[in-house]
């Protein structure tokens, strides 16, 4: 089941090694602030496929779905058929 904590842990490990997970706000714009670029977006999508069993061939991969931890969580929940946890 998708959750913000697992998403934050992944993002910090892959893209923000100097930032504690607790400091990454659920609504921080990852794209606008340059945390995730086009190659990073592919890495996030691959992780979501592996972690949550999402078939990305069957879902819309709009950039807005990857702007923040909250957006990624909502996308993962919708794509995997699980409800998103309250932030």
UniProtKB/TrEMBL annotation:
Which SUPFAM superfamilies does the entry mention? ACP-like
InterPro entries under this entry? ACP-like_sf (IPR036736), PP-bd_ACP (IPR009081)
Q: Which residues form the Carrier domain?
A: 2-80
Signal sequence annotation: none
Q: Which Pfam families match?
A: PP-binding
The protein's name is Acyl carrier protein
Q: Record the organism.
A: Streptomyces althioticus subsp. attaecolombicae
């Amino acid at each position: 089941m998708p959750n913000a904590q697992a998403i934050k842990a992944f993002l910090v490990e892959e893209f923000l090694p100097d930032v504690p997970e607790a400091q990454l706000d659920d609504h921080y714009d990852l794209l606008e602030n340059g945390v995730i670029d086009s190659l990073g977006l592919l890495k996030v999508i691959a992780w979501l496929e592996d972690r949550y069993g999402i078939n990305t061939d069957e879902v819309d991969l709009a950039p807005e779905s990857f702007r923040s931890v909250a957006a990624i969580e909502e996308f993962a929940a919708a794509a995997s058929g699980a409800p998103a946890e309250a932030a």
